[in-house]
Design a protein that fits this description.
Elements: E1 7-10, E2 13-25, H1 27-30, H2 36-43, E3 58-69, E4 72-76, H3 99-105, E5 115-117, H4 123-126, E6 130-133, E7 136-139, E8 145-149, H5 150-155, H6 165-171, H7 173-177, E9 181-184, E10 190-192, E11 195-199, E12 208-214, E13 217-223, H8 230-233, H9 247-262, H10 271-274, E14 278-281, E15 289-291, H11 296-301, E16 305-306, E17 309-310
Parallel strand pairs: 4-5, 5-8, 8-9, 13-14
Antiparallel strand pairs: 1-2, 2-3, 3-4, 6-7, 10-11, 11-12, 12-13, 14-15, 16-17
Length: 311
């Protein structure tokens, strides 16, 4: 039976989180724009699950999202993976976590997965694409089509992409060789009825958010557009991991998904008050999801939660 705390319903879509690992960073490390005044303000809205100022920790997680919709089983992002050499980070290097056991315990079989959708190709989002079997990296989901940005794939062929090419070699190339890969153009596209890739470059060069619509409701898998619920209050903050250093460009890209939902006149100030989707974040430390409502009366009359933060 699925744990109710990790399962969400969006229309007819059932969305289950399968956890991989957890870690924490100091807030001023994760967010270069951090300051003490912001910390005190955010502490009023967020539980210690999301922000622990006493111990100077912003908790983060990696996990897989599993979506059941219209008879399909879809995985969104695949975490860090096991046994993969990542010498640039002890947090990611040669892990050994029982993720596939958790996947099965949640009621899923690897063979039943139809699609794996990847918001971007950083090492902590592609790891369980493959696992080591018969002396080689092979697809974890043998019957799935893996879908990702063409621009993300092509980045590994550039000089800038070479330092992280190991992720391509062990987690992307085996999918291509198995003829299980499909790429999405820079403009994004609807790959299945009601499921589409939305371009949100900034954190990485070809980052995509993934939108799922069902019965008038929307789930938005934001990847690393946001790392933490804190960014609902500070959407202009750039994470440590952002690829693009020019702040205004990253900020504009961060809001591109928001504007698709709310229209081009929506400003950062109205971000948390007007967005009306359930947002599935890749690294939120609590349940990784929230409802954010357009209706301001509803905001006044009930307490909404964003991964440990009231909005």
């Amino acid at each position: 039976m699925k744990d109710a705390s990790t399962t969400h319903l969006v229309g007819e879509a059932r969305i289950t989180r399968v956890d991989e690992t957890a870690f924490a960073l100091a807030p001023d490390v994760l967010f270069p724009d951090w300051d003490a005044a912001s910390g005190q303000d955010l502490e009023q809205h967020c539980s210690t699950t999301s922000l622990d100022l006493t111990n100077r920790r912003v908790s983060l997680k990696t996990h897989l999202w599993v979506v059941e919709i219209n008879g399909l089983t879809i995985v969104v992002d695949t975490g860090i993976g096991n046994g993969k050499a990542r010498p640039f980070s002890a947090l990611f290097d040669k892990l050994d976590n029982p993720v596939l056991e958790r996947f099965e315990a949640a009621g899923f079989r690897r063979e039943q997965v139809d699609h794996v959708l990847l918001t971007h190709l950083h090492v902590d989002h592609v790891g369980w694409n493959t696992h080591w079997q018969n002396d080689r990296w092979t697809p974890v989901f043998p019957n799935a089509t893996y879908v990702f940005s063409k621009r993300e794939r092509d980045y590994f062929e550039t000089p800038e992409g070479q330092p992280r090419r190991m992720a391509f070699e062990d987690s992307i190339l085996p999918l291509i060789e198995a003829q299980q890969a499909r790429v999405v153009s820079d403009e994004g596209e609807e790959i299945i009825d009601g499921i589409r890739f939305l371009p949100t470059p900034g954190h990485s060069i070809g980052h995509m958010a993934i939108e799922i619509r069902s019965q008038g409701q929307t789930a938005l898998f934001s990847g690393d557009v946001m790392h933490s619920p804190l960014q609902v209050y500070r959407p202009q903050w750039i994470q440590l991991f952002a690829l693009i250093s020019r702040r205004h460009e990253h900020q504009d890209n961060r809001y591109s998904t928001m504007r698709r939902q709310l229209g081009p006149s929506c400003s950062p100030r109205t971000f948390r008050k007007r967005l009306a989707v359930r947002c599935m974040k890749a690294h939120a430390a609590s349940n990784g999801t929230t409802w954010m409502a357009r209706n301001e009366k509803r905001l006044r009359n009930e307490t909404l939660r964003l991964g440990g933060c009231a909005i």
